[in-house]
Amino acid sequence: MCSKPVILHTDIGSDIDDFWALVMLLRQSDKLELKMILTDTWNSVARAAICEKILEGTPFADRVLIGAGVLDNNRNYSHEQWVAGYDMSQYPGAFRKDGVTAMIELVRSAEEPIRSFPSVRQLLWLRHWTAHRILPENYIWSACSAAFAGDMT
Fold it and tell me: Which of 14, 71, 85, 13 is nearest to 43 (CA)?
């Protein structure tokens, strides 16, 4: 079976739901090829560090781009202690602080449509980006639950 390229938009680090969504997505690697994780909401760089720490030591670290989304502030988050002292420069994979630009470049250069599984807040950004034609037409976004139910439209 051919895996479909996907991007996960996440506010990982506030509670457990996005952590489990990421783990479930990685377990579906025969069907879904995770190309990028774009973090968002509050401290997006710290949220990217959480993703790096989760992927570090796995085969996904070398092939999944992690990008920090909109940088709005440095509010505290619940997983702060888990990544305290984590050195993002030691991560073996790719990280982009300009994650939105990285995502747009990735989608525009893709040979086939890339699907995105955003959380609710990120849907607002995606609607803005698509309305202003920042993202190309081959960018498909759908709810994360649809991916695990098998509906990829």
Answer: 71
